[in-house]
Amino acid sequence: MSNRKINMKEKYRLLTRDLDWEYSYRDYKEVFPQQEFEGIKITDWSKWEDPFRLTMDAYWKYQAEKEKKLYAILDAFSQNNSQLNVTDARYVNAIKLFLTGISPGEHQAAMGFGQVGRQLGGVGARVACQMQAIDELRHVQTQIHAMSHYNKFFDGFQDFSHMHDRVWYLSVSKSFFDDARTAGPFEYMVAIGFSFEYVLTNLLFVPFMSGAAYNGDMATVTFGFSAQSDEARHMTLGLEIIKFLLEQHPDNLPIVQRWINKWFWRGTRMLSLVAMMMDYMLPNKVMSWQEAWEVYFEEAGGSLFKDLARYGIEMPDYAQTAIAEKEHISHQVWSMFYNYGHATAFHTWMPTEKEMDWLSEKYPNTFDKYYRPRFEKWREMEAAGERFYNPTLPMLCQTCQIPMGFTDMEDPTSIFYRQSEYDGERYNFCSDGCKDIFDHEPEKYVQAWLPVHQIYQGNCGGPSMEDVLGNYYKINLGVDNMDFHGSPDEERWNIWHNLQPAEDKLKQAS
Amino acid sequence: MSKAFIALQDNEESHYIVEAIEQDNPTATVIYQPAMIRIENEGRLVINRATVEEKMGRDWEIPALHVNLITLGGNVDEDDDQFSLTWKQ
């Protein structure tokens, strides 16, 4: 037949091989100036093979279908006032953290893949980066659209973009992507494409989104799963980059292994925020952070690293530390945020008795022993009208920028603390993983914009709490921040649902 | 052996895909979670276009999988007739 329809493999070959050309009037190194400085050796880009073999026509067709489905659901969500159907208003605080802390990372990833795709000599890799850049842009746009509906009814959403560049806890995710985007193109691909997308994003998008569904949040589960449908393709791109680099030249192995070690640890630290969202901010529970970690890191990641062993790749350094931390991390991070609940653009609270029982059941080795007594004390203080807020500013880890509140897994009651000296100055770290990252490239990490240092240096609006939190961060004080109990969010929620705070009921009864 | 897995959004279209996977991978385990369906199998998991078409009663292309896909584990291989996930160790 002369009019034969070409098959998928052939179409992909035409897209990714036939579109390239030889550079006749410019030197190759001038066209791709960043391809060599990281020490990565590429001998033959034609060996690049994207297993999904997605062509542009199929890409647009299926992405358009995903968007139509998504926006139909978002319309239905807003038309039906579905914000009223979430389990309770505490849940919405997880979504505030998502919009301010995670969605801007999607935008950073879009810019990153745009920049990096330009630097790769192989057209197959460039096409994959282009698609991923467009995907990431779609993710940030759909997330903002979905959450703009919540912005009409709840506090704390209004200045997410302004806050992302300034607020202390948002610097954790901002600095993660800044670090990746200021690395070379291959490190970026290993950082975001492999370590983050393949090894860690399942933990963000799969169990948490399933949890959103279980808490009546149709909008979030829909944008989450719509984003994650692209993620499956991103994961295979991440895996392909690793295999490709290792098959190209044996000298690439130690460089790639070091990047995997670094970005696994950086990603794990950043995901400690998600651990807290899952264990503390979802009123209806699907699974604990520990269970999610076991399925998506230990089991799925374990299979992945066994598969990569044939190339000489090993489990990341400090994977064992991260595994030990799975029983502690969510409780420690929630404690940090509870301490600083006056300085956050979302609300914090102490779990109810029933929720504490769930945590005891899910964390039999740690919760009752290390965390429950502290939480019960805090609950007593709150009942006595002395809700605990920590009035001092925390010391931050120079690398991950999280307050130094993680403990030593050998002795879970003492804070883990490491220090390095560079150029006559001392730098502090929350972990060996973060210290190693600094020690390898101190000239990079000494430049970190640490929010607490910046406040003390007078760069954040002024000396008082109101100057920093209100004027500089643009947190509406007494509205966006402080405990959920007594917040305007809680008050409105109770009015919408004809609920009365327990206190008022008591007053009426007497 | 490691488990190859795929997770799909829990919707009408996915139900046919899951039926097809169950038929073509008799040892696979299907796990229902809120809003999603996870299917796992030791070593290898395949989706055949022909089986999905038979279950749906209409034409279906492999890339249409992307619309309902949430996540996967395993090395992907895809052509016009089959999508497979494999761990090589």
Textual characterization of the structure:
The complex is a heterodimer of chains A (510) and B (89). Chain A has helices spanning 8-18, 28-31, 56-79, 92-119, 123-151, 160-164, 170-181, 185-205, 207-214, 218-248, 252-280, 289-308, 319-325, 329-339, 353-362, 367-383, 432-440, 442-445, 451-456, 465-472, 488-496, 502-509, and strands at 407-408, 411-415, 418-422, 425-429. With 510 residues, chain A is mainly alpha-helical. Chain A has one domain (54-509): Ribonucleotide Reductase, subunit A (Orthogonal Bundle). Chain B is of the alpha+beta class and 89 residues long. Chain B has a single domain (3-86), classed as Alpha-Beta Complex (Phenol Hydroxylase P2 Protein). Chain B has 3 helices and 7 strands, in the order E-H-E-E-E-H-H-E-E-E. In chain B, a hairpin with a 3-residue loop joins strand 6 (75-78) and strand 7. Chain B has helices at residues 12-24, 49-56, 65-68; strands at residues 3-9, 29-33, 36-42, 44-48, 69-73, 75-78, 82-86. The N and C termini of chain B lie close together (7 Å). At the A-B interface, helix 3, helix 9, helix 10 and helix 12 of A face strand 1, helix 3, strand 5 and strand 6 of B.
